[in-house]
Amino acid sequence: MILYKKMSLFLSVAIFTGTAMAAKGEISELKCHVELFGGEEVIHFVNAKKSDGLNMIKKLTGKRITVTGSRKKQKIYQVRECTDLHSSFKGTQANQLDAATVR
User: Fold this and answer.
1) Which of 8, 72, 94, 99 is a plausible cystine mate for 89, CB 3.0–4.6 Å?
2) Is residue 95, in this structure, part of any structural domain at all?
3) Does the predicted model carry a pTM greater than 0.90?
4) Do the domain assignments include residue 6?
5) Are the beta carbons of 44 and 57 closer than 8 angstroms?
């Protein structure tokens, strides 16, 4: 009986700890309006931890990404704006580009 109580307590703690750890590493889907070297502007989609969402502009700058219609990866010159996947951008140019982007 004592063993049963100890095991149930252990399992409860393990489940609670696992749930808390999963919440910390929760993934969010973002879309970013980026300018590539050469002046082309595209919408780039990113899966990132929620804690990294604010730092995504710094993390993406200089990164090489695959762009639709090109076989070569292209380098990001500047990240103009990032937002949640289902939200709209603040800039009108980014919203127009987002509307024209195939998903």
Assistant:
1) 94
2) yes
3) no
4) no
5) no
